[in-house]
Each structure stands twice: as structure tokens, then as C-alpha cells.
């Protein structure tokens, strides 16, 4: 494994010890030896789900600042592509954060994702064709 995309659910589980998948996600994170990338919408969604606790939100931001994951911004082109994907996968449904990860996969060629959203990422396709490899198994 070289690089992997980080989704909201896995990031919340990494940071919140009360989350039922915490140990599973921490175990995967501790053994992963590649580059982890995510998007600003994933960070925003994670901060929202962690709640209004400044301590929890600070921990999340520090995770990014200390290199836990590389945060990549959206371009106008990636925003346009995200909307197209959200329309395509509206029956799942695909939220904005997931759409930005699929766009990032298309832009970088990364086809592995660290997520708890098995349903979504089992259905989403990179460039409409390639399936994601979902972690943790």
C-alpha cells in the first residue's frame, strides 16, 4: 500500500475512543505505512460529528497539523466533478465529502480508502469503472 484516502467515519473513529470502531481503526492506522490524504469537506464533516467540544475539535485539527493526513483543497474543477458524482450516486446517496474523495481518487489514481462506509465505497467507481479497495477489512 502506497497511499490511501481517509473518509469521515474512519477519522471520527480514530479520534473518538467511545466510537465502536475505534480500536479497529486505530489498529489499521498504526500498521499503515503509506501516505494518507483527505479533503477539506471530510475535515469539516468530522469536526461537526465530533460535536461542540473544543478539545475534540482541537485533537482533530492537530491530527492534520502533525501529519496524520495530508489535507488537499478543492479546485473549481473538482467541485464541478463532485456535483456530477453526487447526481450520479443520488440513490445511495453520496454526500459532498464522499464525492470529494472520489474526485481525489480520480485526480491521483489512489484506489484505496480508509472508511467505515462500506455501502458507499463499494458502489462508487473511479472514473465510472474502477472499484475502491476498502480498509480496514
Explain the overall architecture.
The chain has 137 residues and is α/β, with parallel strands linked by helices. It has a single domain, classed as Rossmann fold (3-Layer(aba) Sandwich), CATH 3.40.50. It is 53% helix and 16% strand. The chain contains 7 helices and 7 strands. The protein has helices at 8-15, 22-31, 40-50, 54-65, 76-88, 96-108, 118-123; strands at residues 3-6, 35-39, 70-72, 112-114, 125-126, 130-131, 133-135. Strand 5 and strand 6 (130-131) form a beta hairpin. Helix 1 (8-15) packs across helix 3 (40-50), helix 3 packs antiparallel against helix 6 (96-108) and helix 5 packs across helix 6 (96-108). The longest helix is centred in the middle third of the chain and has 13 residues, at 76-88. The radius of gyration is 14 Å and the shape is globular. The model has no long low-confidence stretch (mean pLDDT 97).
Using the coordinates above, name the CATH class: Alpha Beta
Distance between the termini: 14 Å
Number of helices: 7
Q: What is the number of domains?
A: 1
Low-confidence stretches: none
Features:
16% strand; globular; single chain; five-stranded parallel sheet; 137 residues; Rossmann fold; alpha/beta; 7 strands
Quick structural overview:
The protein is α/β, with parallel strands linked by helices.
Describe the secondary-structure layout.
Elements: E1 3-6, H1 8-15, H2 22-31, E2 35-39, H3 40-50, H4 54-65, E3 70-72, H5 76-88, H6 96-108, E4 112-114, H7 118-123, E5 125-126, E6 130-131, E7 133-135
Parallel strand pairs: 1-2, 1-4, 2-3, 4-7
Antiparallel strand pairs: 5-6
Helix pairs in contact: 1-2, 1-3, 3-4, 3-6, 5-6
